[in-house]
Amino acid sequence: MKYEREEGNDTASPKKRSKKTALMAAVDILARQEQSEKKLREKLARKGYEDGEIQRAVDRLVEMHYLNDAEACARQFAFLYEESRSSVRQICVKLMQRGFDSGLVRDCIPPDSFERETQAALRVLSLRFKPSADQQKMKANLYSKGFDSSVIRAAVDAFAASPEH
After folding, report:
1. Are 57 and 44 in contact (CB under 8 A)?
2. Cα Rg for the chain, rounded, in angstroms?
3. 3-state class (DSSP) for residue 14
4. Is 32 helix (H, G, I), strand (E, B) or coil?
5. Where is the signal peptide (predicted)?
């Protein structure tokens, strides 16, 4: 609605909102959720900002330590690794879909994740199967979720040997 100034009335028309700068938009995006540099660039481009302005915003955010792909990737990997029942392979795919470089993602993988992977696979099995279920179906389910064959064998063997609830 447009306000007009009437005689004797001090109500002036509101100023048009000025468009946010790419830096302001980027800060708003980062305030809602941590982003990779790649995804942040994509979101700013979708909002109609030009490449030069996006580059200046990203440079400033990196300079101020608000944007750091290596740290963000490590934090997100650690969270998913500790809190989810996803396989390491699934976690890696998810992080690469979020725009993190595959090298950064690979650097986050612990050297020995067999025990963690086995526990995650057991959690997956316990949510879907009974210990007496067909082992081939259990193995196929774990395989489809990205678990390694040695982890699959260990998890299915341990789960099948566990008592029924």
Report:
1. yes
2. 25
3. coil
4. helix
5. none
What DSSP character marks residue 132? T
Q: Which residues contact 70 (CB under 8 A, 6 or more apart)?
A: 104, 107
Cα(45)–Cα(25) distance, integer angstroms = 11
Q: What is the pLDDT of residues 58-70, one digit of tens each?
A: 999 999 999 999 9
Find the length of the chain: 165
- For residue 51, how far is the Cα from the chain centroid? 24
Distance in angstroms (rounded) separating the CA atoms of residues 122 and 51: 47
Neighbour-count burial of 53, counting CB atoms closer than 10 A to its CB (0-12 exposed, 13-18 middle, 19+ buried): middle
User: What is the distance between the terminal CA atoms of the chain, rounded to a whole angstrom?
Assistant: 65
Q: Give the pLDDT confidence of 111-159 residue by residue, as tens digits.
A: 889 999 999 999 999 999 999 999 999 999 999 999 999 999 999 999 9
